[in-house]
Amino acid sequence: MSAPHSSATLSRKAAIVGIGATEFSKDSGRTEMQLALEAVKAALDDAGLKGSDIDGMSSFSMDHNWENEILRQVGGKELKFFSRTEFGGGAACGPFVHAATAIASGLCNTVVIYRALNERSGLRFGAGQLFNTSPLDPNIINFSHYFPYGFMTPAAWIAFSARRYMHEFGATSEDFGRVAVAMRDFAATNPNAFFYQKPITLEQHQTSRMIADPLRLLDCCQESDGAVAFVVTSVERAKHLANIPAVIAGARQSIASTTRMMTPFYGESISGIPEFDACADDVYGMAGLSPADIDMACLYDHFSPWVLPQLEAFGFCKRGEAKDFVKDGHIGRGGKLPVNTHGGQLGEAYIHGMNGIAEAVRQIRGTSVNQVANVNHVLITAGAGVPTGAAILAKG
Amino acid sequence: MSDPAVAALLELVTPLVNRRVGPYNGWNPVTRTQIWQWCMAMGDENPLYLDDDYRAANTDFTGAVAPPTMMQMWTMRAVNGDHGPGSTRQNPYEILAIMEQHGFAGVMAVSYDQTFHRYLQEGDQVHHYSTIIKISDLKTTGVGKGFFVTEKAEYMDQNNEVFAEALITYFQYQTPPKQPGAKKAAAPGKINRVHPVENQDTAHFWQGLRDGKLLIQRCTSCNTLRHPPQPMCEKCQSLQWDCIESTGQGSVYTFTVMHYPEIPPFDYPNTIVLVDLQEGVRIVSQLIDTKPGDVHIGMPVAMQIKEVQDGMSLPLFRPVQK
User: Fold this and answer.
1) Are the CB atoms for B188 and B159 separated by under 8 Å?
2) What DSSP assignment string belongs to A264-281?
């Protein structure tokens, strides 16, 4: 635990009152700007609000859509606050921290959060990505230690940690596979999921092609096109709106001293996720909750192996025991901590984690296609292996 | 292309699936001269192939042995398309030709899996048969829409015994229609490794490699070593540093064997290691001179700096016996 919960002033001051999304596909056939607008409009409609109600915005640094363009087109008047968060999917919780902080401080009242990407039909991250080669770009200075060897895909970077996790705790490829099987089971009953009606067996996982040993094809999320948006407003305003508010009870960003951008290879141990170890106590503390209070979780599952240390960091099981927790069925349908009931990024779509946060809101509202009974508190996490964040949503 | 057009094309080619054609005969028997030339060209110094004394002492082979990967060479057709005497005139790639006529004019080989059953020796006479065993549904990929077509090639000796097999998958795809006035695309150049980009914080490291040294940064205030290079010591915040030269000895801390996607110009599978250097810092590199699966945590490794392409020297690692 770091400082006492000094940021507790943002706790339970803001709530997610609107969610919106486009369809998820392999080729959206339209610009990221249009995707963003469709999702933002849908989120405003869901909240029962208009563009003119917005006075703040927050998104990912990687998002290509400018706030002013969105504001004008959705009929907005002015923005008093806007912010971006860096580091790919690690940005999935940052905008909620920023929105809650801005609302709690009185800077603004209603923040739209959006992420739109044509990641599949456009530049695919998994293809071996190339960056700007200017020495002024911090990305290429970092990745120059890896790309010349052909070490240039997210799956391969994650494989380093997954291999250590296996080595240190006796986990196997099957333990990773059980995560994928659970996600695909939920996706199979979610009509919005890319893998709707396409569950997999552990055997199919075990015979799927090797991508970057020990990661098999079915350990890797798909690449997707689509957009997700949210409306966050003050809990006072939320009382006058139709939806059950998903109150931001605790939320924090997290960078540890050993954090590197996708290449966290130099800490004493690389089998865990130090960013989540560092922030878990704070997030629970801000919310005044403990792991036993969490009814379900939406965890960042770009690659199945890294779901395991997340379960450990947030106290659902001890270090090294997540494989048994998963094997006992606890993260699956009917388990004691269902995880990613929308199917996760492994089963629904890869929208940089934002589709998982939308599912967390549906679970709070009681409107998920795979609804868990009596959901009061949901844990959400942003990307692993990068600067990141986590949050707890509570039923308002 | 509309679905009926795809269906019509598939109706034409599907009957040709599983039709085995051949033989395609070699022009010459396996000879020592050809083996020598291959080994010289490839830099393959395995004594099994041409060292008669080694072979006599260690194996039952009586003549020069051909490297298995020469397989495809023995029955290669001449530039006019002819195979050796007695070969069939039938085109093994009729399916691809039909697809080409229907607008799927682009072709690329996407995988090549080989199985070797026995070595060839000088005097063996080679022929092969070809069968298209599979056509995929219409798929959309980065280069366009097309079909994955899988060929099975059986390589046989004079006794009709299969000594090697290959499964080759081609992607036969629709090339985009030409834009009027569009410039002719430049001929694709050779794809190189991504060149490291240097700045003032890292230039010494890359220059060190070009000079044949793996340099590890050392804080001159508290002597803490660090890698990758950075301006400030994270222990004592000093900006003063020099370097020590690494011995290049270490062990594998973790690893991955990369299979897919195959990023040019690398050979696959590509084994990437995180090495704990003896000096106490870690470095990422490639493991070379080892079979793909032959790597484990704790494996002792040693570095060799190689100029992998013009102006790019990298510290690569190979297993060492301890």
Assistant:
1) no
2) ---SS--SS-HHHHHHHH
For residue B12, the domain's CATH number is: 3.10.129.10
Assess whether B153 and B216 both reside in one domain: no
Do B165 and B249 fall into the same domain? no
Q: Measured between CB atoms, which of A26, A257, A265 is closest to B284? A: A265
- Report how far Cα B50 is from the mean position of its chain's Cα atoms: 24
**Any A CB within 8 A of B280 CB:** no
Predicted pLDDT at B102: 82
Whether residues B168 and B304 fall in one domain: no
B298 touches chain A (CB under 8 A): no
Question: How far apart are the CA of A293 and the nearest CA of chain B, in angstroms?
Answer: 37
Task: Say if residue B238 is in the same domain as residue B309.
Answer: yes
Q: Is A141 on the interface with B (CB under 8 A)?
A: yes
| pLDDT of res. B2 | 59
Active site (catalytic) residues of A:
300, 350
Q: What is the mean pLDDT of residues B57-75?
A: 89
CA distance A173 to chain B (A): 13
B14 vs A178 pLDDT, higher one = A178
Residue type, B16: L
Taking the Cβ of residue A140 and every Cβ of chain B, the question of whether any pair is shorter than 8 Å is answered with yes
Question: Residue B294 domain-assigned?
Answer: yes
Q: Kindly give the pairing relationship between strand B249-258 and strand B215-219.
A: unpaired
Which residues of chain A fall below pLDDT 50? Answer: 1-4, 6
- Name which of B259, B297, B308 is nearest A212 (Cβ-Cβ): B259
CA distance A317 to chain B (A): 25
B214 shares its domain with B289 = yes
Q: Which domain holds residue B93?
A: 3-174
pTM metric for this prediction: 0.74
- For residue B16, pLDDT beyond 90: no
Q: What is the pLDDT of residues A175-231, one digit of tens each?
A: 999 999 999 999 999 999 999 999 999 999 999 999 999 999 999 999 999 999 999
Find the helix packing angle between B3-13 and B94-101, rounded to 10°. Answer: 150
List the single residue in A with minimal CA-CA distance to B316: A149
B98-142: pLDDT as tens digits: 888 888 888 888 888 889 999 999 999 999 999 999 999 888 888
Q: Does B257 touch chain A (CB under 8 A)?
A: yes
- The whole-number pLDDT of residue B178 equals 53
| Domain count for chain B | 2
